[in-house]
Design brief:
By secondary structure, this protein is an alpha/beta fold. It has helices spanning 42-51, 71-84, 104-115, 130-147, 162-166, 168-172, 185-192, 234-247, 262-275, 285-294, 299-311, 328-347, 349-365; strands spanning 33-37, 57-61, 91-95, 121-124, 154-159, 178-183, 207-209, 214-215, 218-219, 227-229, 250-252, 280-282, 319-321, 324-326. Helix content is 44%, strand content 14%. α11 crosses α13 and α12 (328-347) crosses α13 (349-365). The protein binds glyoxylic acid and magnesium ion. Its cofactor is Mg(2+). Keywords: Lyase, Magnesium, Metal-binding.
């Protein structure tokens, strides 16, 4: 672990005199959808204030998808939007340019003094190893100290290089600022030299095929056989989830580029949710609704989880519910679901109503 390169007792000391004290725990703030907007696009920028309260995170994107000629306009646009908007319960994040780009230093030295008090999280793209996080960590501390900020800005890394994946655990543990990781399937595919041309999602060629039927022990290779498309991203998401869980930070799916294919988008998001991710990116307003639905536990799951919690009493031993064995370990899974439902209900009145309605049903049944 890279934390060992500093004495553990120094790990939570500010990296600049006067910088805010690092957090010991990363707050579990709802972030089902991280909605990307281009701050250099006046039409998109104008919509931002109306989106406050409708999405968990608004992210001003400065990196890829912003043309080189618009980099400064995007940075200035983000400063203006942040200064003029009251974000209420909605978090404000940004994605800065890559650390090897000519723009990133100006991104940091402009944003932190101007809107550092409004920025919750800075997303750093193309992170390769702990050294990238150390660089951002120190410079943020210097800028926070200079600006007199009271709350540390958190850092989120995009996992989108082969070396980044190989170093995923050390990246997560590189700084107490680390808030989470997102999968960057487009850059990661390119860096790995995968033979795909898409932004996230599956591929029809990545499949398994059932065995041929046999007649008298002879395989009929001419028979038609079912095939099942596989998830190209399973390995990376699973590694990401473990690395994040081990360090008490949060994993996210990333972009799903086929905006029109809402069904496949929902499937990809759900796979990530089931594996342990807390949210995803939204590249179009219609993906916000998908993300909010998928990354909120279903009413049925919450109802079941509450039943298990109630049936398990002091949390030890085993009980039978509907013919299934429940024990300490299934209780812990249920508690994850119940706690998440409570966190989300606190910011989402519609969801709260749905979860409360089942609580009412359970009481009237009892
Ligand atoms: C996101 O940045 C990606 O490269 O997929
Ligand atoms: Mg990328």
């Amino acid at each position: 672990m890279t934390a060992a390169s500093r004495s553990p007792k120094d790990f939570f000391r500010p990296l600049a005199v006067g910088a805010p004290t690092p957090l010991r725990e990363i707050p579990a703030r709802p972030s089902r959808a991280i909605h990307f907007f281009d701050p250099s696009n006046p039409k998109m920028a104008a919509k931002v204030p109306d989106m406050v309260g409708t999405v968990d995170v608004l992210l001003g994107n400065l990196e890829d998808a912003i043309k080189a000629d618009n980099k400064e306009a995007a940075r200035e646009g983000l400063v203006r939007i942040a200064q003029e908007t009251d974000f209420g319960p909605t978090q404000l994040w940004t994605r800065i340019n890559a650390l090897d780009s000519p723009w990133v230093l100006d991104d940091l030295t402009t944003l932190v003094p101007a809107i550092g008090d409004k920025l919750d999280v800075i997303m750093v793209p193309k992170v390769q190893g702990a050294e990238d996080i150390h660089y951002v960590d120190r410079i943020l501390a210097q800028l926070e100290a200079k600006a007199g900020l009271e709350k540390p800005i958190l850092v989120h890394a995009i996992l989108e290089t082969a070396r980044g994946v190989a170093n995923v655990e050390e990246i997560c543990g590189a700084s107490p600022r680390m808030q989470g990781l997102s999968l960057g399937p487009a850059d990661l595919a390119a860096d790995r030299r995968m033979k795909t041309t898409r932004v996230g999602g599956g591929h029809p060629g990545y499949l398994v095929r059932e065995d041929p039927p046999r007649l008298d022990g002879v395989a009929n290779l001419e028979a038609s056989r079912a095939t099942y498309q596989q998830d190209l991203w399973h390995y990376t998401i699973a590694r990401m989830v473990d690395a994040c869980a081990m360090h008490g930070i949060y994993p996210y799916y990333g972009p799903f580029g086929d905006i029109s294919d809402t069904t496949a988008c929902e499937d990809q998001f759900r796979n990530a949710f089931l594996l342990g991710c807390v949210g995803t990116w939204s590249l179009h307003p219609k993906q916000i609704a998908i993300a909010n639905r998928v990354f909120s536990p279903s009413v049925e799951d919450v109802a079941h989880a509450r039943r298990v919690v109630a049936a398990m009493g002091d949390g030890t031993g085993a009980v039978m519910l509907d013919g299934k064995m429940e024990d300490d370990a299934s209780l812990k899974q249920c508690l994850v679901m119940v706690e998440l439902a409570e966190q989300l209900a606190a910011v989402d009145p519609e969801l709260k109503q749905q979860y409360d309605a089942i609580a009412g049903d359970e009481q009237s049944e009892a």
